[in-house]
Specification:
- The complex is a heterodimer of chains A (110) and B (113).
- Chain A is an all-beta fold and 110 residues long.
- Chain A has strands spanning 4-7, 10-13, 19-25, 32-38, 42-51, 54-57, 64-70, 73-78, 87-93, 100-101, 105-109.
- Chain A contains no helices and 11 strands.
- In chain A, the strands form 2 sheets. In chain A, strands 2, 4, 5, 6, 9, 10 and 11 form a 7-stranded mixed β-sheet that branches. In chain A, strands 1-3-8-7 form a 4-stranded antiparallel β-sheet, with no helix packed on it.
- The N and C termini of chain B lie far apart (41 Å).
- In chain B, strands 2, 4, 5, 9, 10 and 11 form a 6-stranded mixed β-sheet that branches. A 5-stranded antiparallel β-sheet of chain B has the order 1-3-8-7-6, with no helix packed on it.
- Chain B is mostly beta strands.
- Classes of the chains: A mainly beta (110), B mainly beta (113).
Chain lengths: 110, 113
């Protein structure tokens, strides 16, 4: 158990609504990541953070924003959800060279 | 472009067989390579990490090797069991891309009793 929780674990929302996913870690690791997993694409990095208020884009960042006001929490926001953002979202931390993943959030945009 | 490929996409073997899963990558300048296991509907479990200076790592029945010059890593599973059934993912941290990981699409392994 890497001490990572994600909330909610499942969510169904309508197109055009804002959605925020939360990742919480019980340690104070500097690096945190958001990935999405889709059939045919594998896992792809959305955004990552290397400290409080320090974030950067990954390869599929369009339509997403992030915030990190506390070391333990990393929030992913879909400003206006679209059907193409239906996916499973994973948060990860990196206490050292390895990355450890949370249980995931299954998001369905109808 | 830096890419990671895993072939085959699916593999079915009888219980007790020794097997090898393959991972290939397009750029030999890697920082490390990590193997994960994912059970259906679950998150990723880290199995093994190989640093770029290492040739292999072992954990129990699992052995991962790394050959940077050929752009390949293999995950060897000895004496496979039905409980080994899962999707196995490899991920590369490139030397030039900070701490980001690039994932292969995985190999779905089924071990039949």
């Amino acid at each position: 158990d890497a001490g990572i929780t994600q909330s909610p674990r499942h969510k169904v929302t309508e197109t055009g609504t804002p959605v925020t996913l939360r990742c919480h870690q019980t340690e104070n690791h500097r690096y945190m990541y958001w990935y999405r997993q889709d059939p045919g694409h594998g896992l792809r990095l959305i955004h990552y953070s290397y400290g409080v208020k320090d974030t950067d884009k990954g390869e599929v960042s369009d339509g997403y924003s992030v915030s990190r006001s506390k070391t333990e929490d990393f929030l992913l926001t879909l400003e206006s959800a679209t059907s193409s953002q239906t996916s499973v979202y994973f948060c990860a931390i990196s206490p050292g060279p390895e990355q450890y993943f949370g249980p995931g959030t299954r998001l369905t945009v109808t | 472009k830096q890419e990671v490929t895993q072939i085959p996409a699916a593999l079915s073997v009888p219980e007790g067989e020794n097997l090898v899963l393959n991972c290939s990558f397009t750029d030999s300048a890697i920082y490390n390579l990590q193997w994960f296991r994912q059970d259906p509907g679950k998150g990723l479990t880290s199995l093994l990490l190989i640093q770029s200076s290492q040739r292999e790592q072992t954990s129990g029945r699992l052995n991962a090797s790394l050959d940077k010059s050929s752009g390949r890593s293999t995950l060897y599973i000895a004496a496979s069991q039905p409980g080994d059934s899962a999707t196995y993912l490899c991920a590369v941290r490139w030397a030039t891309s900070g701490s980001r990981l690039t994932f292969g699409e995985g190999t779905q392994l089924t071990v039949n009793p």
